[in-house]
UniProtKB/TrEMBL annotation, chain A:
Family affiliation: Belongs to the cytidine and deoxycytidylate deaminase family. ADAT3 subfamily.
Biological process, per Gene Ontology: tRNA processing
Protein name: Cytidine deaminase-like protein
Gene Ontology cellular-component terms listed: cytoplasm; nucleus
Molecular-function GO terms, alphabetical: tRNA-specific adenosine-34 deaminase activity
TrEMBL record, chain B:
UniProt-listed PANTHER family: CYTOSINE DEAMINASE FAMILY MEMBER, TRNA-SPECIFIC ADENOSINE DEAMINASE 2
Name of protein: tRNA(adenine(34)) deaminase
Classification via InterPro entries: APOBEC/CMP_deaminase_Zn-bd, CMP_dCMP_dom, Cytidine_deaminase-like
Pfam families: dCMP_cyt_deam_1 (PF00383)
Organism from which the protein derives: Lophium mytilinum
GO function terms (MF aspect): tRNA-specific adenosine-34 deaminase activity; zinc ion binding
């Protein structure tokens, strides 16, 4: 291979030539992982009070509520529509309310005289009062009963308690589902519990056409190690993508059975844990960066490299390790993407986070050991560990986008 | 813990602190550790993320590399770790997978801690055997080393940073 060919290697402009890589791209699609907070938001309910009122009195009653429950300012229930027409409520609530409808006298308008724009005086609305935790039901009934329209119509407020989503929906579809199930929900195009939908969409569109190729390459890396009995059939590829340019920075397969020190390959569990594919690939990126920063001609293989296995051990690993295609201004794995044949374990997930990766895609979810997936189920080896390490900004000081690849 | 036992653990934590001091003098985040088998130190490590440009080269990994170049992996099942700062989530998981017997640490790591500081990787559901942890041994010394590191880095910084942002940056990047 000539010098100029070497320099070209691992860099693709526009079209990624899978044939040149010796792989057949996988066909499929990316499914964004749900964050732990999104799961929580999707499952956490709270009890809330609802009361029937004539439409013309809705805002007057909201005022009464604001005074009776001063704490209501401190709770975020903006995703719950406060004043709702019967037809916008879920089926089962419609039936409940129809069954318990109260007979309101044709009322005096609160301001004394009716206007043409006023709702029909006999129109009824259902008003979401507050979370039940803020006031006792009998106190609420008493507070409402003292004021119009209840006081003037001599009607006992009919307060019922229903479960509603405690947190805002994270997508329009979710808002729709909840509206059919719990209460009329409003959706603003934001996501306080995970990546913003438009950011996620943009990133997904940018990498989806190539993800199948990188996953195929990751599989080759895993196959070259397992084929020689020195690792599990697990691999990964680290890619830098900027606009139309793709650079394959490192690929690595698992080397846990390689043996350490003088020992021959050894299949005794757990093997050499630090030789998991992601750890090895991250180590190779670091070595390439050291080589670049210190202008070394070649890599000095040290004792650490033999144990951590962060030096190339197969032809495909070597072909990408040997070229200096790492953008020189970088830091750790900032701006890099990692594609894995399998969901990384907790150790590898946190290594990806420590290394400041930008995006992560994996093909096979691994319930017993994986560190990225989340679930409604309580954590277990069978249900999945539920750590969602990619997006826990309140606890861990970095976050990255993560997708599960679904084969066609 | 009786007096004799306490002294036994403090003795090894002092050795871990020496490694953290070495890290400090090499401009690495001052975290140090020793692995102990049958009362003997079989491996020593300090954080080497700056030297290696590898964000995963924590003190525990440096020591593990040293140990595995001499001993079989299975030795870890009868080995204890003494580390000045609580192992991070990554190291906590590595230790559990390797089958470490017990972990003793100095101060808690409330940014990345994997054995109580943030997550409980040592005892959560897992296919790997859980391990006991004991925190707070020479906690003040461990924190003081980190403080000295911030001051040292501050004095080198080309433009003044507030101590608070430095602390944050350190905890983000290195521990
Ligand atoms: Zn792993
Ligand atoms: Zn660590």
């Amino acid at each position: 291979m000539t010098a100029s060919q070497t320099a070209q290697h691992g860099i693709f402009h526009g079209h990624v030539d899978a044939q040149k890589l010796g792989v057949t791209p996988k066909k499929g699609r990316l499914v964004p992982l749900r964050t732990r907070d999104e799961i929580r938001a999707a499952t956490e309910l709270l009890d809330a009070y609802v009361v029937e009122v004539p439409a013309v009195f809705a805002s007057a009653v909201l005022n009464v509520i604001r005074i009776a429950i001063p704490n209501i300012r401190d709770v975020n229930i903006q995703h719950l529509r406060r004043v709702v027409h019967l037809s916008f409520l879920p089926e089962h609530l419609q039936q409940t309310f129809i069954a318990s409808a109260q007979t309101w006298p044709s009322p005096e308008h609160p301001d004394g005289e009716a206007r043409a724009s006023d709702p029909n005086p006999t129109e009824i609305r259902y008003l979401l009062v507050s979370p039940a935790s803020l006031i006792a039901s009998q106190d609420l009934v008493a507070a409402l009963a003292r004021e119009p329209p209840f006081s003037i119509a001599n009607i006992v407020p009919h307060v019922i308690t229903i479960p509603v989503p405690a947190l805002a929906p994270t997508s329009a579809e979710e808002a729709q589902q909840w509206s059919e199930k719990y209460w009329s929900i409003s959706y603003k195009n934001t996501n306080p519990y995970g990546p913003h939908p438009s950011l996620l969409e943009r990133n997904q569109a940018g990498i989806e056409p190539y993800a199948g190729t990188w996953l195929a390459l990751a599989k080759v890396a895993g196959g070259q190690m397992s084929g020689r009995g020195i690792g599990a059939n697990v691999g990964c590829a680290i890619v830098h993508k900027e606009r139309k340019e793709h650079r394959v920075i490192a690929v690595a397969g698992d080397a846990r059975w390689r043996g350490t020190g003088d020992s021959k390959p050894c299949r005794e569990e757990p093997g050499n844990v630090m030789a998991h594919a992601a750890m090895r690939a991250i180590g190779m990126v670091a070595r390439k960066r050291v080589r670049l920063e210190q202008s070394l001609d070649e890599l000095t293989s040290d004792a650490a490299g033999q144990i951590a296995c962060d030096v190339p051990l197969s032809p495909v690993e070597n072909s990408f390790f040997s070229v200096d295609n790492l953008p020189s201004t970088g830091y750790l794995c900032l701006d890099l993407d990692i594609y894995l044949t399998h969901e990384p374990c907790v150790m590898c997930s946190m290594a990806i986070l420590h290394s400041r990766f930008r995006r992560c895609v994996f093909e096979n979810a691994v319930k017993a050991t994986g560190g990225l997936m989340t679930s409604k189920e309580s954590p277990s080896v069978e249900n999945g560990l539920g750590y969602g390490i990619f997006w826990r900004p309140a606890e861990l000081n970095w976050k990255f986008l993560a997708w599960h690849w679904e084969n066609e | 813990m009786d007096e004799e036992e306490r002294q036994y653990h403090e003795n090894f934590m002092r050795e871990a602190i020496k490694m953290a001091e070495l890290a400090l003098s090499s401009d690495e985040t001052p975290v140090g550790c020793v692995f102990v088998k049958d009362g003997e130190i079989i491996g020593r490590g300090m954080n080497e993320t700056n030297k290696t440009l590898n964000g995963t080269r924590h003190a525990e990994f440096v020591a593990l590399i040293q140990i595995l170049s001499k001993y079989p992996i299975s030795i870890l099942q009868s080995t204890d770790l003494y580390v000045t700062v609580e192992p991070c989530v990554m190291c906590a998981s590595a230790l559990r997978q390797y089958g470490i017997r017990a972990v003793y640490f100095g101060c808690w790591n409330d940014r990345f801690g994997g054995t109580g500081g943030v997550l409980n990787i040592h005892e959560d559901p897992s296919i790997d055997k859980p391990y006991p942890v004991h925190g707070g041994i020479f906690r003040e010394e461990a924190i003081n080393l980190l403080r000295r590191f911030y001051v040292q880095e501050n004095s080198k910084a080309p433009e003044p940073h507030s101590k608070k942002t430095r602390e944050l940056k350190l905890l983000e990047s290195s521990v």
